[in-house]
Amino acid sequence: MVLIFALLPACEFRLRGLDSRAETPDLAFTRSDLGGATDALAGSPSVIATNLASGTTKVSVNKRITATFDDAMEPSTINALTFTLKQGATPISGAVVLDAASHTATFTPSAPLGLSLLYTATITTGAENTGHSALLANYDWTFTTGACSQAAIVLGSAASFAVLAYSTVTNSGKTTIAGDLGLSPGSSVTGAPTVTGAAHIDDPVAVKAIADLATAYADAAGRTLCATIVAGDLGGQTLTPGLYASSSSLAISSGDLTLDAEGDVDAVFIFQIATSLTTAATDKVILVHGAKAANIYWQVGTAPSFAATSAFKGTILAHDAISLGAGATLDEGRALSLTAAVNLDGNTIVKPAT
């Protein structure tokens, strides 16, 4: 008896008997009935893009690695076993997430990468599309981290707060806080700002957040790697990622300050300011080429103040009181005071997206 498979519409297969001596019925199978037998018909997926070209150098130690596929992928097969990162033979731990809409997988290392090291990322043949076809071969690419790349400041539980103070929070006018409001050990919040997050007033959450803020402040103040010395007025300048240190005060008073990430959305900016930080009215911090407010930190040794209608970005880690003038905005930022108050006046403060 001769058997012939015929491919029909809707992925249906018919098995027809051609032996005239046997009464062999037609048998129909759908793709789901055949399981993996039809994978070759669906075609194997491929990696069509990564956020780092193989051989890229001076990569941020905070880099999240992405790979984009040409097909919808089976989520259960995109994980830390099929998307790996190694430094030499040493595996790097991390979390893998698949964005189904864009067919993009992201590997986020559990800790900052090392400086000036070569890494190899791999998508293995364990990665399958939704038709259960696997990559035909492992896909590898390499990159090298920068010698002066800054790791992000770890805020811990303080990260959920848009405003966090030690003694008091005062407010005049219509202030909106998009994020949590915290205070400890003080308990006085005046002026009734509108808070879209949670309010933690001298409770265990606020106590922990102040402790984590102290750790973050010490980290920011203690950085020394590849520091660039700055002084005076930063207005009108364009700065690239790195550590900037001032032995006195800094101002943004003669124009806008532009922070340029040079295409690296994971790049970090840290400003160490021994005394005060001030802005002039209407002056702004502008982010370009992938710079993210979540990766910008201002460690201020005394009391920063922001003039009316100025627009600031980034996390302010201040030792003393923080004061925002009438209408000043901290859009994509945090006002975190380690030992004193946060004083508000008709402001908008929006916690940065991560």
Notes on the protein architecture:
The protein is mainly beta. It folds into three domains: 3-41, no CATH class; 47-145, Immunoglobulin-like (Sandwich), CATH 2.60.40.1220; 156-350, no CATH class. 8% of the residues lie in helices and 42% in strands. The protein has three helices and 35 strands. Strands 13, 15, 16, 18, 19, 20, 23, 26, 29, 31, 33 and 35 form a twelve-stranded parallel β-sheet that branches. Strand 9 (94-99) and strand 10 form a beta hairpin. It is elongated and about 65 Å long. Mean pLDDT is 90; it is low at 1-41.
Secondary structure blueprint with pairings:
Blueprint: E1 3-8, E2 12-17, E3 27-29, H1 31-34, H2 39-42, E4 47-50, E5 56-59, E6 65-69, E7 83-87, E8 90-91, E9 94-99, E10 104-109, E11 118-123, E12 139-145, E13 161-165, E14 168-172, E15 176-178, E16 180-183, E17 188-189, E18 194-195, E19 199-201, H3 204-222, E20 228-229, E21 232-233, E22 238-239, E23 242-246, E24 250-252, E25 257-260, E26 269-273, E27 277-279, E28 285-288, E29 296-300, E30 305-306, E31 311-318, E32 322-324, E33 329-337, E34 342-345, E35 348-350
Parallel strand pairs: 5-12, 13-16, 13-33, 14-17, 14-34, 15-18, 15-35, 16-19, 20-23, 21-24, 22-25, 23-26, 24-27, 25-28, 26-29, 27-30, 29-31, 30-32, 31-33, 32-34, 33-35
Antiparallel strand pairs: 1-2, 2-3, 4-6, 6-10, 7-8, 7-11, 9-10, 11-12
Note the main attributes of this structure.
354 residues, mainly beta, Immunoglobulin-like, 3 domains, twelve-stranded parallel β-sheet, eight-stranded parallel β-sheet, 8% helix, disordered N terminus
